[in-house]
Amino acid sequence: MPVPRVAMLPEVAAQRRALADLLDTVHRDEWTTPSLCHGWTVHDVLAHLTLSTRQSTAGMVLGILRARGDFDRAEARAARERAAAHPPGVLTAQLRATAALDRRVGLSSPWDPLVDVLVHSQDIVRPLRRRLPTPQDLAVPALEHVWSNAFYGRPVRRLCGVRLVATDTAWAEGAGPEVRGTAGDLLLLATGRSVSASAVTGPGVPEAAARLRT
């Protein structure tokens, strides 16, 4: 059963702490590994996650202005600057210390921290060949939040022509040839990540992959 909104913050905190515990095992030479987030290292992604509870609305707006209105470029620059300023051990400690902090920038939704930690955790752990399962009861509300959300590129449009079907819970969206996978893997697809061929199956996989490349 999906986690209700009122119970979400403790779950977000638990996911942040679980990631921090896993990051304690990462070796020094692994931090430059490219993440699933295109153009970012796993160190960059960790730095971004620590900004979730530290970046002010004014700071975010200033960053967007510096990037000439390009939000993605602004976020990438902020993450890289923070990664350059703080070693991974410090960032991991920061992630753990503010895991339960209910703070986010203006205009963001209470659901965004959940999406942030679920997706970016996988951005980090999968290229490192580590395992941190995405709980299905968290993945479902995250999927519902991003599915038609313009901030996430409106997956309902980006993946138009295929139907996503979760294999571990009762969730499905879209119309067309099916793409089947766990709710966690479908969340990665919905947010523009490529997943391994073994993670998703079905006749809609080639079409979904093609749409993610455009």
From TrEMBL:
It holds the Pfam family MDMPI_N. Gene3D superfamilies: dinb family like domain (1.20.120.450). Transmembrane segments: none annotated. This is Uncharacterized protein (TIGR03083 family). It comes from the Bacteria. It comes from Modestobacter marinus. Residues 13-100 form the Mycothiol-dependent maleylpyruvate isomerase metal-binding domain. GO terms for molecular function: metal ion binding. NCBIfam families: maleylpyruvate isomerase family mycothiol-dependent enzyme (TIGR03083).
